[in-house]
């Protein structure tokens, strides 16, 4: 039997055993980033170390049985701020305070919109090219924040935008540009990461919506537009998925609640190829909202394995939950992954690398048993 080509592999993405993208940073990389910050090494010296550690990471992902490999977001401090600040008109900056995550506070960093948002070039295109060149027989998967994250996390410090719609006009055009540039660089498997949808999942989130001068129905339409129009021009041979997150910093979270209140939009209104969904504990609610999936070509990646702690889940219970989910969406449209990345920021979750790789192998082994 001949091996599948990379393009044939991509058509099978998302994979039955998949992952969200970020991995714990090796101590050598953490030290190098600190040395660069202190002026002890140059940017070129840091990049060389990043390159070496990413090469090791890709091999470890393959050894664990993954068919899609990422760069672990090893060149980033944040899963979203670093990327968004690569657009014209968006600036990374120091803030007065960090963000509270269930009692744990992040560093005081943020992004602000200081002018018209546009794509002229983006430094992370080179990050993808490096991954593409070392992926070998695996699929190079790249992860970027959803366009909704600039609305959700960015501060508007310009009068160039009079309405949310005008803001999204430029934001969508910028995303169309960067997605095409990634495609031209060889990217065929792209994942959008989005915590903004969690606003609809709880009363606290709905209060945030009201504080922004909007209402849930209007905001859901805006978020839907942001996703669908950003990916509207994607080529047919490019797979684009989205991971919906409730926060992931140092093994904590920022929001709770099930998918029900936004389920018709998320499961019935987004033109994505797949959805990575958190279902690792009671905070995410039940599988009933999946009933709104009507498309036979929309894949659901169940995040049933937690990335927040090292203990391995009972494999039989995970298989039972996959069976439960298959009451609402066919089994052949279901995949399995950790509920989030292992290091949404460079600090990483509170587990060690050996536990991280045991989790990944756990996903692969369970998937092999379920989808024989």
UniProtKB/TrEMBL annotation:
Enzyme class name: transferase
The Enzyme Commission number assigned here is 2.1.1.14
Q: Pfam families, per this entry?
A: Meth_synt_2 (PF01717)
- Is the keyword Membrane assigned to this protein? no
* InterPro entries for this protein: Met_Synth_C/arc, UROD/MetE-like_sf
Keywords, alphabetical: Methyltransferase, Transferase
Residues annotated as domain Cobalamin-independent methionine synthase MetE C-terminal/archaeal: 19-368
Q: Which GO terms describe its molecular function?
A: 5-methyltetrahydropteroyltriglutamate-homocysteine S-methyltransferase activity; zinc ion binding
| GO BP of this protein | methionine biosynthetic process; methylation
Coiled coil stretches, renumbered: none
Q: Provide the protein name.
A: 5-methyltetrahydropteroyltriglutamate--homocysteine methyltransferase
């Amino acid at each position: 039997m001949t091996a599948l080509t990379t393009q044939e592999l991509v058509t099978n993405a998302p994979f039955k055993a998949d992952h969200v993208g970020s991995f714990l940073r090796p101590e050598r990389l953490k030290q190098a980033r600190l040395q660069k910050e202190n002026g002890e090494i140059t940017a070129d010296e840091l990049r060389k170390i990043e390159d070496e550690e990413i090469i090791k990471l890709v091999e470890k992902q393959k050894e664990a049985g993954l068919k899609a490999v990422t760069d672990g977001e090893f060149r980033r401090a944040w899963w979203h701020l670093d990327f968004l600040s690569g657009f014209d008109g968006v600036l990374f900056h120091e803030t007065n305070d960090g963000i509270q995550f269930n009692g744990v506070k992040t560093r005081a960093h943020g992004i602000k919109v200081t002018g018209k948002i546009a794509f002229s070039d983006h430094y992370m295109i080179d990050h993808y090219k490096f991954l593409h060149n070392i992926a070998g027989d695996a699929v190079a998967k790249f992860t970027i924040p959803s366009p909704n994250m600039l609305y959700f996390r960015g501060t508007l410090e310009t009068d160039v935008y009079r309405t949310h719609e005008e803001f999204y006009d430029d934001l969508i055009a910028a995303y169309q540009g960067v997605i095409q540039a990634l495609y031209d660089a060889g990217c065929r498997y792209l994942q959008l990461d989005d915590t903004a949808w969690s606003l609809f999942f709880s009363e606290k989130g709905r209060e945030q919506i009201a504080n922004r001068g909007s209402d849930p129905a209007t905001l859901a339409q805006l978020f839907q537009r942001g996703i669908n129009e950003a990916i509207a021009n994607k080529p047919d041979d490019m797979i684009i998925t989205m991971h919906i997150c409730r926060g992931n910093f140092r093994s904590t979270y920022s929001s709770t609640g099930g998918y029900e209140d936004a389920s018709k939009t998320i499961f019935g209104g987004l033109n994505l190829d797949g959805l990575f969904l958190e279902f690792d504990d009671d905070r995410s609610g039940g599988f009933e909202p999946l009933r709104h999936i009507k498309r036979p070509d929309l894949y659901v990646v169940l995040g049933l394995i937690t990335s927040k702690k090292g203990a391995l889940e009972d494999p039989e219970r995970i298989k039972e939950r996959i069976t439960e989910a298959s009451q609402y969406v066919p089994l052949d449209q279901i995949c399995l992954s950790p509920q989030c990345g292992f290091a949404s920021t460079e600090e990483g979750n509170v587990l060690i690398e050996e536990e991280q790789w045991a989790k990944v192998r756990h996903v692969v082994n369970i998937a092999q048993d379920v989808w024989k």
